[in-house]
Design goal:
Layout lengths: L2 E3 L13 H7 L4 E6 L7 H11 L3 E7 L13 H20 L4 E4 L14 H17 L3 E5 L9 H10 L4 E5 H6 L4 H7 L4 E6 L1 E2 L5 E2 L8 H10 L6 E3 L9 H19 L2
Parallel strand pairs: 1-10, 2-3, 3-4, 4-5, 5-6, 6-7, 7-10
Antiparallel strand pairs: 8-9
Amino acid sequence: MRIGISTASFFNRIPTESAFDILRQMRVDTTEVFLNTFSEYEKPFVDALVPRRGNLYVHSVHCLGTQFEPQLFSANVRVRADAENLFRKVCYAGYILGAKFYTFHGPVRLKKRTYTFDYIKIGNRINQLVDIAHSYGINLSYENVHWAYGSDPEYFRQLLKQCPALYTTLDVKQATQAGQDPVKFLDAMEGRISTVHLCDVDKAGDTALPGQGKVNFERFFREAEKRNLNAPALVEAYPRDYKDLNELKAAYDYIANIVIKVKNK
């Protein structure tokens, strides 16, 4: 199992184009590239990232999905087409950076109400997006997010029945914030997990570096080992949760040591 750090951990601290050098300095060899804004989806920007990447393994790309991903499901043809144009740009970014996956959030929950999902309708649209991603050599990987449609295991259990080529990203922190046991997502997403995102949650429900909150990461990785999960596990921290890069590196080492412990027991 590869262990890495997402460049989302540097949001508002380090520009995307400088993240590769920082990761190398931290002796981290695996990452997910987080593209922060519309200008970073453009071809000249992402093309310029390639020589900066060097020998780092870019497993996946991610973007600020609330900017356009919900609109991919709009009933308005023009809105949907504009969103799809942006979606293709992120797919191209993944392709040119050598990534295998696009981490996707999808529609959001805008109001506190009961949502009833038409899994066939949603699945049909996602299958279209999967096909577009495939045309760029990229796989779509749908992430569980507590404020989006995919906030509970059952959503994924039902949706994956409709989408045979869809992958998933298991976010431990998002599961916890949704009041769910992350292990339940291991079962609901079984056989489809491409990526694991790692961040902690404190007793107040706020984010924290792995090892500084209430998430039992050793239990999670033991359960993952039982299920033969081999997807890369990436620390996706929030910049407000650490003072300097030494603290972020310590969180990365903490996870790496847990994985070694679990593998050797």
